[in-house]
Write a structure and sequence with these properties.
- The structure is a single chain.
- The chain has seven helices and five strands.
- Helix 1 (11-23) links the parallel strand 1 (3-7) and strand 2 (28-32).
- The radius of gyration is 25 Å and the shape is elongated.
- The mean pLDDT is 91.
- It is an alpha/beta fold.
């Protein structure tokens, strides 16, 4: 679930932003008053958005960016004079005075983009180690020799057996090797 860290130097501003977010159904994981606190909280969370002001007592927001986890983005709330967007560094800005509907729609857009990226990454096939690939290849070779299957048929058999038994392809291959060698 998307986590939001709210960080403003004035505690009352941070609480007000948190209240707006909570009232609109967002999960606020932490409220901070310094950049250092915000960095620490983000590293405790899986992914999300840092909603923050421009300057803290310990650092300006630009100094937070290099320490932000890769799976976090920043929604900067600041005056029009300092307003900037830097999409390469995952920074989006909203200007003061804050219009709640613009703030929420910007946050929603950012949350949607983060979720899409996460799903895309999750959908990518996982890379197998050389050892795992060797086990799978050995099991395919055994199936090809003993059952006169083509490589493609042996692979499909491994996949189907893996899905039917709710085990990984490597575990299924290991079982086949154990059964055939035993």
């Amino acid at each position: 679930m998307l986590s939001i860290v709210v960080a403003f130097p004035k505690p009352e501003v941070a609480r007000n932003i948190r209240n707006v977010l909570v009232k609109n159904g967002y999960d606020v994981a932490a409220v901070c008053t310094t950049g250092g606190q915000a960095i620490g909280k983000m590293h405790d969370l899986e992914y999300g958005i840092l909603v923050c002001g421009y300057r803290f007592v310990d650092m300006p927001c630009e100094e937070i960016v290099p320490y932000m986890p890769a799976n976090f983005e920043m929604l900067l709330i600041t005056s029009k004079a300092v307003l900037f967007d830097d999409f390469e560094r995952n920074i989006v800005s909203c200007s003061m005075p804050l219009k709640v509907h613009e703030f929420l729609s910007t946050l929603e857009m950012m949350a949607y983009a983060i979720e899409r990226r996460r799903k895309k990454i999750k959908a990518q096939p996982k890379k197998r180690s050389a050892k795992e690939q060797a086990i799978i290849d050995q099991a395919k070779h055994i199936l090809m020799e003993r059952n006169q299957l083509s490589e493609e048929q042996a692979h499909k058999y491994l996949q189907k057996t893996s899905m039917d038994s709710a085990t990984s392809l490597t575990e299924t291959a290991q079982m086949i090797i154990s059964m055939m060698d035993g």
